[in-house]
TrEMBL record:
Superkingdom field: Bacteria
The name this protein goes by in its record: VTC domain-containing protein
Organism of provenance: Candidatus Magasanikbacteria bacterium RIFCSPHIGHO2_01_FULL_33_34
Pfam family, one: VTC
Any single biological process term in GO: polyphosphate biosynthetic process
Positions of the VTC domain: 8-237
Length: 273
């Protein structure tokens, strides 16, 4: 495998049912081919496992919820094929400006991953010696300094990937069985994940230039609506990660007055209202 380390492309997302997924794949079959990464897999899919970083107050989550057009995500990612983890992981910074995606990443050995998690920095890793990785690491260190970011939620899902048969710059993926857990171990194999996607599939269309005509036709025919779907935000909500930051609603003065009067703590008229 020769993984691509820098991406700039458009990314459109659609939430579809399983039946519609089958119909769409049937319609576009003449124009797509399986990603070589899954050619030998039993079911034509691989698992994507991502460990997302955020601040104690969930700065990146709030940017997405607030509709900020220019934002970023920082994560560790690995893959599992037929139940077997890859021998490496990726460190990634994914930036979005509206529909345009810019992603930088680099490969990490398991030893470098362990050192990063243990020490919360790259100082003792082999990765930091590579000049090509230093700008990404510097951006990460700046975010650590600025926002005190750390691992927040682990996300796992099955991905069925295809490439354009006549255009390798086109990619379409079908993501399902999305689940999440509050955990800081990218290689965690517990069974306490929370369901995120239900019976739905997230179809992601990724391309440079113009959208292929056969995809445009499918979108029109099935009246598909492009959505802003964040696996990270859905996972944060499903896993209960925000619970520590949900505060009771502040009581108004009339609520406080009534409670104090009922408890005999003050005489009626003491509030002057």
């Amino acid at each position: 495998m020769n993984p691509k380390l820098h991406f700039q492309r458009f990314e459109f997302k659609y939430l579809i049912t399983f039946d519609l997924e089958l119909e769409i794949k049937k319609r576009i079959a003449p124009y797509i081919k399986k990603d070589s990464f899954v050619e030998k897999n039993k079911n034509g899919m691989y698992e994507v496992i991502s460990l997302y970083y955020d601040s104690p107050g969930f700065f990146y989550y709030k940017e997405k919820i607030d509709g900020v057009l220019k934002r970023k995500k920082i994560r560790l990612r690995t893959y599992r094929n037929d139940g077997e983890f890859m021998k490496y992981s990726f460190f990634e910074i994914k930036r979005r400006h509206d529909t345009v995606i810019l992603k930088d990443r680099f490969l990490m050995s398991r030893d470098d991953y362990d050192k990063l998690i243990k020490n919360d920095d790259f100082h003792s890793t082999v990765a930091i010696r590579d000049q090509n990785r230093k700008n990404i690491i510097k951006e990460f260190e700046w975010e650590q300094h600025l926002r005190s970011i750390g691992p927040k939620v682990l996300i796992n899902y099955d991905r069925e990937p295809y490439l354009g048969r006549y255009n390798d710059n086109f990619r379409i993926t079908f993501d399902k069985n999305i689940k999440a857990v509050q955990n800081d171990n990218l290689f965690y194999e517990g069974n306490d994940f929370e369901d995120v996607s239900g019976n739905n599939t997230v179809m992601e269309v990724k391309f440079n230039g113009s959208l292929p005509h056969y995809v445009s036709e499918v979108i029109r025919e099935f009246d598909l609506e492009r959505i802003s779907y964040s696996k990270y935000c859905k996972a944060i909500e499903a896993s209960g990660s925000l619970s520590a930051y949900e505060f009771p609603q502040t009581k108004g003065i009339m609520d406080v007055r009534e409670k104090m009067l009922n408890n005999g703590m003050v005489a009626d008229g003491a509030f002057g209202i």
